[in-house]
Structure formats: C-alpha cells, structure tokens
Amino acid sequence: MNFSSARQHFYQEIQQPDESINLARAALYIAQEEYPDLEPEEYLNSLDTMATELEERLPSSRYPLRIIQNINQYLYDELGFTGNKIDYYDPRNSFFNDVIERRTGIPITLGLVYIEVAKRLNFPMVGIGMPGHFLIRPDVADIEIFVDAFNGGEVMFPQDCQERLSQIYQQAVILKPEFLAVVSKRHFLARMLTNLKYIYLKQQDLEKTLAVVERILLLFPGVSLELRDRGLLYYQLGYFTQAVEDLQSYLTKVPDAEDADVIRQLLSKLGKK
C-alpha cells in the first residue's frame, strides 16, 4: 500500500484490537494528512498537562457526578472549551489538533478531548453514537448519565436525550436503546471521518473527500456504500479503471440497490472509455 506517512500511521494504529486503539493518536493521524508537519506528541502532551492540572483539583470522594462537575469547571470555565455553534461545518472542528489549540469543536471532537482527559484521571468514559448529536458517558455499569461535551458538559439522563432528539429532528422521536449504545473505537473514528466527508462534499473538494472515504474503508473494508462513493469519486476525478472496479464490487454486494440501474448505466458508459 503506497500510503503517506500519516496514512501509514493511521493504518498501523487501527490494525490493533479495537480496545487497544489509541483514539487520540488515530485522530491526530487523521489531522496529519491536512497538516503534514503536525507532531502528535505535542498534542498528547497537552492532554497530559490538562489531566495533571485537573488531578490536583479533584476531591477525595470521587463520585462520578463530582468528577464530571470538576472536569466541566476546568475544561469549560477555566480553559474555555466551547462548541462551535457559529460555524459548525468549519473543517477545523473535526481536526483534533485544531480543537485542542482553538478550544473549539463539535460534539464528537470535544467529546474526545473529554474522554482523553478523563482517561488520564482513571475515570474511563465512552462514546455514545446518538443520532444527530454525539454524547459520552462514564464507563460504569448500571449508570445512566450522559455528558454533552458540545454544550458545556451538560449532564443528561435518558429523558433528556429523548427531548434532545425531538429538538434535532423537530418531531417526537421514540428513544430506542440502540440510540444510546456505546460505539466502538473504529466507529468513533468513522463518525469523525464521515463528518469530514460531508464537509468536503459540500465544498466540492473531491480529492479530500476521496482521501476521507479511503480511510473509512481502511476502518471497515468492503462497506458497500463507501465502495460506491469511492467509485463515484474516482469517476468524477477521471480514475476510470478504479471507478469500474469499485462500482462493480458495489453491484456484486447489493445487486438490488435502489441506485443499481443508475450505476449499471454509468458502468456501461465507462466500458466505452
């Protein structure tokens, strides 16, 4: 595989068992493709420093809500981390180095800052892939409290999550158990990349969109929709041989897809090139 240095490091990181993946490192390797001179250790050291400063302020009675309260005060009140509600789709909100430097991000990247600081305090937290709004929660059995890292570390309970979903979708939403399920580290990274994918698509930056889709496929090889999207990007960028390969693979996997006829027409057109 002829990968860039950043892509090689990302690939090596995600080859480990899911529980062994270092989320912060992997996120920084994603950013390193945008910032080739980025030094991951610099940002990992920043997280270490945050945790060290916070450790000194923690109370002796380390109940989950007390720890969350202290983390919130430190990250949001003292350091000024905030959700970017003005320019949500700024790609810098999805690059972990930018989020640490600018102290501004979106739910998943601010959640990652929170998770990484909490991990260093021996207070493990996990990602919750709620549709439309990523949350985190303490990795403690039988505890149903969630943290909204985008909104100042707001503590939420399942009823709050249902209300938030209804606000997002502007209609009553039934809260299904899977909406509050823990996401694997690979899915965490894929969701970060998917955010970037749609930002670049909106900007019509096809080369960067392709680079993102390639990394999603490193996480989850053979996912049909990503194969299709990579094939279409190859086509738009003039890489016709690669386009044919991906689009044929897509049809093999989902021959009855809603867009199968459109893809077959495109393949027929490509056959004449």
From TrEMBL:
Residues 42-193 form the Protein SirB1 N-terminal domain. The lineage of its organism: Bacteria, Bacillati, Cyanobacteriota, Cyanophyceae, Nostocales. This is SirB1 family protein. Belongs to the UPF0162 family. Gene3D superfamilies: Tetratricopeptide repeat domain. It comes from the Bacteria.
